[in-house]
Structure formats: C-alpha cells, structure tokens
Write a structure and sequence with these properties.
Thiol Ester Dehydrase, Chain A; five-stranded antiparallel sheet; 4-hydroxybenzoyl-CoA thioesterase family active site protein; Tol-Pal_acyl-CoA_thioesterase; fatty acyl-CoA hydrolase activity; 4-hydroxybenzoyl-CoA_TE; YbgC/YbaW
Length: 133
Amino acid sequence: MAEGAVHLFRCRVYYEDTDLAGVVYYANYLKFIERARTEWAREAGIDQGRLRAEQGVVFAARRVEADYLAPARFDDLLEVRTVPEGGSGARLVLVQEVWRESERLFAARVTLVAMDGAGRPRRIPAGMRGGSG
C-alpha cells in the first residue's frame, strides 16, 4: 500500500469491549488498530502466515504513541484509518486513528519491526513499504 494512502477498517463496539462506565476499555483501542493493521497488510497482498512459514518473518509492535481523545461506547460503529508514514529496512511507521462518524476518538503512531524467529531484524516486504526500498 503506497505511503500516504488511507486504509479503512470498520468495527462495531461490543459489550465485551466496554468497562463498568460503559465506554470502550482503553486497551481495546490497541486491539482495534491491530485488527486494522492485519487487514491493511492483507489488502497490500501480504499473507502473514505464509510469510512466517516461507521466510521466517514476523512483525512486532516496537513502539506505540497513543492519545485517547473521546470515549467510544457500546454499539458504536467505528472506523480505523491507517496511513503508512514511512520507515526503513526492518522498520515501518503507521499513523492510525479511530473515528466515530466525524469525531476522532483515538490517535496512535505505531512503529512495527520485522524480525526472524530469533528476534533478529529482517527486511519488511516491499508491498508493506509502499514498494520502495
């Protein structure tokens, strides 16, 4: 997926996603953006299971900078927007935001790294880096 291209992923807030106050529990935003990254990779033509089996490459979140801006609530329909920001070799930076209609609820900057089974850096496939590098 080209750098700057926006990927959209929609998800519904279920009862299990909320806390006693009836709002989305803070850690669940990380689950929402993780699901969106999986779909983003899939749509970029990256089969993560096959990549692991054939090349031994797996991905890990190295850093997440997150801002919780407004609460999502039970039954809200959310949209996660993922935009590749850049990266190099074994590192990829994505900007991810969670929206409810026109209201931004959550914003994160996520640094992913590619590595082998022993934790050594590996190059990120070109399709995930916008075809460059």
